[in-house]
Specification:
Elements (H helix, E strand, L loop, with lengths): L7 E6 L5 H13 L3 E6 L3 H4 L2 H8 L3 E2 L1 H4 L4 H11 L2 E7 L1 H9 L5 H8 L4 E5 L9 H12 L3 E2 L3 E4 L5 E5 L3 H12 L9 E6 L4 E2 L5 E2 L6 H12 L3 E6 L11 E4 L3 H11 L5 E4 L6 E3 L18 E3 L3 H8 L8 E8 L3 H11 L4 E6 L11 E2 L1 E5 L4 E3 L3 E2 H16 L3 E7 H10 L1 E2 L2 H6 L2 E2 L1 E2 L3 H9 L5 E7 H4 L3 E6 L2 E6 L3 E2 L3 E6 L20
Parallel strand pairs: 1-2, 1-4, 2-3, 4-5, 5-6, 9-12, 9-14, 12-13, 14-17, 17-18
Antiparallel strand pairs: 7-8, 10-11, 15-16, 18-20, 19-22, 20-21, 23-26, 23-27, 24-30, 25-29, 27-31, 28-29
Helix pairs in contact: 1-3, 1-9, 5-7, 6-8, 10-14
């Protein structure tokens, strides 16, 4: 599923030569699934036309002329109230001044006054305009009101001067927008620690023992966790990959540094995703100076590094917040046997196993083919996916485990009583659509509100994920990923059937993350 599906962004474009970059921002946000509605000031439309944005996003692009059209009296209100984010990029000094002082003389500033959505501003201006006391005072006012300011960067400006005023790069703007749009996800207020990349063990000041890990899968996991609303600490070995916007990055080099960083951050962690390729051995005594060539042979004594997950297994009870630990196994032979052994000996909740010799999987590529092994014996084979899709799949399963390994389904008392009489649950949707619509437990309140309103005859079936996993397809619907059951529901898979209060009466009824007290 696209991470911003179902989100609406109002993109304001004011009159700067950097307005052309806004087209890249609009295109990328649309590719991520957002609906991007553009509002151009009169000056902004002189640099880039509305047609450009309409063509890139498939959504309307408005100018001040539309303010006086047939729908002008409500256009700005509708734009503001329906926005999930108001992004102004580029924002000129003139536009910043209007925003700070509450002026509303064009469609963009009217929209800004009518919205309660987060406001992200990316300034762009020339010369000494950004550092001028008036501009700084306006920015201070906007920050005090909760506006998010990104940039500007230093560099060559349109006037030929060099200074601070360049619009932030489009990918940086998109990254910050993505972060702000995903703060209300299922992992909201949760802290996820992700390790990524390979470690390097020094032989001498020049050479290291390393591995071929690119860090791509770990960085994709960090982004997926952010997309689910988590706060993320990303502990990474050496890599040139850009940090996902919003993640707290901790750079390490050796296995010892990785271990120290992991345990330093575990006290605040709810979930650990251990995707790093940590060295198993290091040189016993690294040389103080560069080792010169000349010897025909060189024997290199190695010693074991500390086993991070093994150490955690013996200390896990001391990390009271830590609900779930997910490990990774990159193997070249006996994939399932080696992964299962690691799962059991390290006391993991889930392990992601991949065969590094398989085509289009493993190191330095953008795709992966993995098998998920669970502590209860369940096994899931996933098809070839992008590493971003693998990361999303892992986080979805982690959410299910965090919710006690249960899925949910809403039905009526009468339908459930009939199922008990008949010995199987097969609602009309199974014949009409081919599947039964299940949900994660955290999705149940939203499903109830949208489809059932204030009905009082509902029953929540809590279903053991392990009992139906082989029959599920995880599919996108309404901006989320849902588990669809392509078969009748066997009654033995139902752990409990509970009466449901009316929508909005008691969201906590559906539970939360009960696993925190398991270990």
């Amino acid at each position: 599923m696209k991470p911003l599906e179902g989100k609406r962004v109002v993109l304001g474009v004011s009159g700067s030569v950097a307005a052309y970059k806004a087209a890249f921002v609009a295109s990328r946000l649309a590719q991520l699934g957002a609906e991007v509605i553009t509002v151009l000031t009169e000056a902004g439309a002189k640099f880039v036309t509305p047609l450009t944005f309409q063509s890139l996003t498939g959504a309307p692009a408005y100018t001040d002329a539309d303010l006086w059209g047939q729908k002008g009296h409500v256009l700005h209100v509708g734009l503001g109230q329906r926005a999930d984010l108001l992004l102004i990029a580029p924002a000129t000094a003139h536009t910043l001044a209007k925003l700070a002082h509450g002026e509303a003389d064009n469609l963009l500033t009217l929209t800004a006054l009518s919205t309660t959505a987060p406001l992200l501003i990316a300034p762009a201006m020339d010369g000494g305009m950004f550092t001028h006391p008036a501009t700084q005072a306006n920015l201070k006012v906007l920050k005090a009101r909760g506006a998010h300011i990104l940039g500007p960067a230093e560099g060559h400006l349109a006037s030929g001067l060099v200074g601070k005023g360049r619009l932030a790069e489009p990918e940086d703007i998109v990254g910050r927008a993505r972060y702000l749009l995903t703060r209300s996800g299922a992992l909201q207020s949760k802290r996820v620690v992700v390790t990524a990349g390979g470690t390097q063990e020094p032989l001498d000041p020049v050479r290291v023992i390393a591995n071929r890990s690119s860090g791509k899968q770990g960085f994709a996991l960090a982004q997926a966790a952010l997309d689910f609303g988590a706060e993320v600490t990303l502990i990474s070995g050496p890599t040139a990959l850009p940090t996902p916007a919003g993640a707290q990055r901790v750079d390490v080099r050796t296995a010892a540094e990785m271990q120290e960083a992991v345990f330093r951050h575990l006290d605040e962690a709810d979930l650990l995703l251990m995707a790093a390729a940590v060295a198993d051995y290091r040189p016993e005594t690294p040389a103080e100076h560069k080792i010169k060539k000349g010897r025909p042979r060189w024997e290199l004594p190695l010693t074991r590094t500390t086993d991070i997950l093994g150490t955690l297994a013996s200390r896990r009870a001391s990390f009271r917040r830590l609900c779930l630990v997910v490990g990774f196994a990159a193997e070249s032979r006996a994939l399932l046997e080696n992964a299962r052994h690691k799962l059991e000996t390290k006391r993991l909740d889930l392990i992601v196993a991949n065969d590094i010799t398989a085509p289009q999987a493993g190191f330095a590529v953008d795709t992966n083919r993995v098998t998920l092994l669970y502590a209860d014996g369940l096994r899931e084979n996933l098809p070839l996916m992008s590493k971003a899709e693998v990361a999303q799949a892992v986080l979805v399963r982690a959410l299910v485990l965090l919710e006690g390994g249960m899925l949910g389904h809403l039905t009526s008392h009468r339908a459930w009583e009939r199922a008990q009489t008949e010995g199987v649950y097969a609602p009309p949707s199974l014949e009409a659509e081919g599947f039964i619509h299940l949900s994660r437990l955290d999705q149940i309140p939203r499903v109830q509100t949208r489809f059932y309103g204030h009905r009082e005859d509902l029953v929540l079936l809590k279903i053991r994920f392990a009992a139906v996993a082989d029959l599920l397809r995880w599919e996108a619907a309404d901006g989320e990923i849902f588990p669809h059951l392509y078969a009748p529901l066997p009654l033995e898979a139902v752990a409990s059937a509970e009466a449901v209060p009316p929508a909005g009466a008691n969201a906590s009824h559906f539970g939360g993350f009960p696993c925190a007290s398991r270990h």
